[in-house]
Design brief:
Elements: E1 14-19, H1 23-34, E2 38-44, H2 48-57, E3 65-66, H3 69-76, E4 80-83, H4 87-99, E5 104-107, H5 114-127, E6 131-134, H6 141-150, E7 156-164, H7 179-184, H8 186-196, E8 200-208, E9 220-227, E10 232-238, E11 251-256, E12 259-263, E13 270-273, H9 287-301, H10 309-328, E14 332-333, H11 334-348, H12 352-359, H13 364-368
Parallel strand pairs: 1-2, 1-4, 2-3, 4-5, 5-6, 7-10
Antiparallel strand pairs: 7-11, 8-9, 8-14, 9-10, 11-12, 12-13
Helix pairs in contact: 4-5, 5-10, 5-11, 5-12, 6-8, 8-10
The structure holds nicotinamide-adenine-dinucleotide.
Length: 372
């Protein structure tokens, strides 16, 4: 999609407000203050004391703070917003920023539901501002290396991820209906779309909660996704599995016509294939610092970045399809998830310009793929 570029003829850094001064907000503040490409203009949080504490922790107690990201950005002359609020606040905070003429770099998930995510994609169109989702694994150099290997395997039959860990978080994850699928699995789901360069067609998922689980919701999930072209992606995970824990990225296998690529999630992936050595993986970016660099470059150049909202929505749709499949006890088509979310988005939309953008879509798939 085309969006308004923010040129810098003088090479001055982009002035940003970070909104959300929680655990992940602090990680972003570290990255923002270490970057030469951006300058921290202020910190916003509904809890202004939390914003003040975050500023003090950077030895910047004089930094402007506030409860509202747009008001703070306008007061400080900021040019963009980094949204690290809780998922339920992603839609209102990002919509307000885009409407005020501020591009947004937002934490995953794009929103708390696919319907709200579609509204955000339409809001980006209506305002002509860039909204990029930071899905941190996209900028993991080992994932890029695995993608380069995958491209050498010919047709791919199966991709699998095994994820088995036993974290005791306390807090909201312990109370959610689907903590593993909703809070964690979006990372590998986004990664498999990136690896294959294709989109999911259907999901078949079972979730359950082992008797010893310390979560209220289902901590175990096994899902099979069919992708365009017939590749199956198998996700097998648990968040209450003590012993022999996998890495936080899980353990990956890509099984193709000409061989297999393996990744333990922590060290460089390995290729066992007729084709010999993998091509050099190319990514100059790493983690959320990489996402920030890509965001600034996109704003300077006007070129659409990986993670632009339209392109990101299908990762959340995989989560929603898996949850719906587990509830229904049958396979669920991604197109049905999208159509249902689209109807909900139209019904719930408060803004006329966003509704007009949504109404102009010929189909949700086409709109997300950038085709009108
Ligand atoms: N990429 C990753 O690996 C990763 C890891 C952890 C969290 N996250 C994501 O980061 C986001 C934040 O997670 P967290 O763990 O920091 O949460 P958190 O609860 O620690 O912090 C969220 C902060 O947002 C503030 N907030 C809520 N609504 C707001 C609003 N409308 N306006 C301004 N401030 C508001 C809260 O007061 C709180 O201080 C979530 O989307 C989460 O999924 C990503």
């Amino acid at each position: 999609m085309t969006f308004r570029a923010v040129a810098s003829s003088t090479g001055e850094p982009l002035r940003v407000v970070v909104v959300g001064a929680g655990a992940m907000g602090r990680a972003w503040l570290g990255v923002v203050t270490a970057s030469e490409e951006v300058e921290l203009a202020g910190i916003a949080d509904l809890d202004v004391a939390a914003a003040q504490e975050a500023a003090a922790s950077l030895d910047r107690a004089e930094l402007p703070v506030g409860s509202d990201a747009v008001e703070l950005a306008q007061r400080t002359g900021a040019q963009a917003v980094i949204n690290v609020t809780v998922p339920e606040a992603h839609h209102p905070v990002t919509t307000a920023a885009l409407t005020a003429g501020l591009p947004v770099l937002g934490e995953k998930p794009v929103a708390e539901s696919v319907s709200r995510a579609l509204s955000l994609a339409a809001a980006a169109e209506a305002t002509g501002e860039l909204f990029m989702v930071s899905q941190s694994r996209r900028w993991n150099p080992q994932v890029s290396a695995l993608k380069a290997m995958t491209q050498q395997l010919g047709a791919v039959g199966t991709v699998s991820t095994e994820f088995f860990r036993a974290p005791h978080f306390g807090g909201f994850r312990d109370e959610m209906a689907h903590p593993l699928l909703v809070d964690m699995a979006i990372h590998p789901f986004d990664s498999v779309r990136f690896l294959l360069g294709s989109e999911p067609v259907s999901a078949w998922c079972q979730t359950w909660n082992p008797p010893w689980s310390w979560y209220a919701g289902d901590a175990n999930a096994t899902a099979v996704f069919e992708f365009e072209g017939g590749t199956r992606y198998v996700y097998n995970g648990s968040w209450c599995s003590p012993g022999a824990e996998t890495s936080w990225n899980g353990v990956w296998r890509v099984s193709g016509e000409k061989g297999t690529a393996l990744w333990d999630g922590d060290t460089d992936p390995v290729l066992e294939a007729e084709v010999g050595d993998a091509a050099e993986a190319s990514t100059a970016y790493d983690g959320i610092a990489g996402a920030l660099q890509v965001f600034v470059q996109a704003l300077r150049s006007g070129e659409t970045p990986s993670g632009e909202v339209h392109e990101n929505v299908m990762s959340l749709a995989m989560v929603e399809a898996a949850v719906q499949s587990a509830g229904a006890g049958r396979a669920v088509r991604l197109d049905d998830v999208l159509e249902r979310a689209y109807d909900e988005a139209l019904q719930a939309e408060q803004r006329e310009d966003v509704r007009a953008a949504l109404t102009g879509w010929s189909s949700v798939r086409a709109a997300l793929a950038g085709v009108r």
